[in-house]
Amino acid sequence: MKITLRIWRQHDREAAGRMVSYGVDGVSPDMSFLEMLDVLNEQLTAAGDDPVAFDNDCREGICGMCSLVINGIAHGPEGLTASCQLYMRHFSDGDTIDIEPWRSPSFPILKDLIVDRSAFDRIIQAGGYISSPTGAAPDAAAMLVPKKDADRAFDAAICIGCGACVAACPNGSAMLFTGAKATHLGALPQGQIERNSRSLAMVNQHDAEGFGGCTEIGECTAVCPVGIPLDMISRLNGDVLSALRHNTT
Amino acid sequence: MPGACEIARPRMLASWLDRAYGRPMGTGNVVGLRSTAVRSSVALHAAMAVSGLIMVLFLLAHMYGNLKIFEGRQAFDGYSGYLREAGEPLLPRTGALWIVRVVLLISVLVHIYAAFTLWHRSRSATAGKGGWRYETTKNRRGVQRSYASFTMRWGGVVVGLFVIYHLLHLSADYIAPGGASPSPYQRVVNGFSIWWVVLSYMIALIALGFHLRHGVWSAFASLGTNSSVARRRVLNLVATFVALLILVGFLIPPLVIFAGWVR
């Protein structure tokens, strides 16, 4: 396959960026999207050009590092798929593919397609923990967790923190991420003690980072590579409102 | 490494260190959290949801009252008079009406304040470009968002302007196409005998219908009631039903009058 790429090139945080076109020849349909970018970077390096900087780590869809907006869609056209798990067979010979970084003022671009997502770390640091004695692993049956709650906590905990929800949101909101991080602790008995203060602290940090509010449009859930559902946001909303109503924390 | 220090933005450092490692839970810490969270986008969305739902309840009652036009002039004008006398002698004349007006005015102001504050935050969070912040021209309309959802803000402005026009027309009798009259029944019939009046109301009501389709759903979701996939379906069905009910219910009188069946 022969593919034409239009890629956002930006030298550093301060520099102005622009879209640059590159041709890549000999792309196999079995290549992943990132392998195709590796081929491009080999070409660029051989020609003495600066290779395209992009985030990646596990390349199996679980680490949340890859972060490409492909043809205007975060993580590209395939649902429930991170950029690294997207294969070139979903494109056709001769296609032009536009590749851009996540765009959000809260995720400053460091170089080319790499953005700084430490805003997410700070949201987790604000409340994404439980105060529990540590030590040896507790007895499996010491605290019974209803199956429904365990499933819900797991549905939330699979969030890989990639930031596609922010990239896709017309409001630049990170509420899907924040809702998932608050729910995966708040759905379990061990997470109840700080449930109120956690929801307030995480939402406050979310707003302080400059993310917008959620208008329940659902673009985030359409691009989320692990399928975090929209009700995570509603649950966090409910927790915040409940924490504001009841002064029991 | 000079670049590395810039990555962790220092302005945030103090606040998250405080929260993560600082004061113990259950002390003064939480009070600060609450006073900040009152101004959060979550709280503003809740304020917008509650004020919006109050206005939806009013619209349902208003729509029901409008349909009294089919009972004739006496019933319609009598109903208009009743609204002014309701609650007497406990309340003064027009007392109940003024209570409703004040509640509605507060709801409108809260709704507008929350909407513009959140609009401003969304603009800041997307460098002023919303969903159009990518260079590519592909998939500009996103993956799944509905027409109703991305016309919420400008649709709301259209509805707001319409409310002013509508109050000047049928409540204040200040704009009186077709002729002013002390009889509310006559004002309605005079107005809706003119094609452009009917057309302007139709456009505004369609804008309102879209606004309610997304607004009713998102109001319930913002208040925390979207708890599962099944509940999401129910809430979306309720929103579609309410939007259609209000759209059709309000459209019937103008269209019937314009057709000449009520005169």
What does this protein look like?
The complex is a heterodimer of chains A (249) and B (263). Helix content of chain A is 35%, strand content 11%. Chain A has two domains: 3-111, Beta-grasp domain (Ubiquitin-like (UB roll), Roll); 118-245, Alpha-helical ferredoxin (Fumarate Reductase Iron-sulfur Protein, Chain B, domain 2, Orthogonal Bundle). Chain A has helices at 33-46, 118-127, 147-157, 164-168, 175-186, 195-208, 219-223, 231-245, and strands spanning 3-9, 18-24, 69-70, 73-74, 96-100, 109-111, 114-115. In chain A, helix 3 runs antiparallel to helix 5. The longest helix of chain A is centred in the C-terminal third of the chain and has 15 residues, at 231-245. A five-stranded mixed beta sheet of chain A has the order 2-1-5-3-4. In chain A, strands 6-7 form a two-stranded antiparallel sheet. The model of chain A has no long low-confidence stretch (mean pLDDT 95). Chain A is an alpha+beta fold and 249 residues long. Chain B has 263 residues and is an all-alpha fold. Chain B has one domain (40-258): 3 helical TM bundles of succinate and fumarate reductases (Up-down Bundle). Chain B is 72% helix and 0% strand. Chain B has helices spanning 2-7, 10-22, 28-37, 41-66, 73-85, 95-125, 147-150, 152-171, 184-191, 195-222, 229-258. The termini of chain B are far apart. Residues 1-14 and 21-28 of chain B have low confidence and may be disordered. The chains are: A alpha+beta (249), B mainly alpha (263). Chains A and B meet through helix 2, helix 6, helix 7 and helix 8 of A and helix 1, helix 2, helix 3, helix 4 and helix 6 of B.
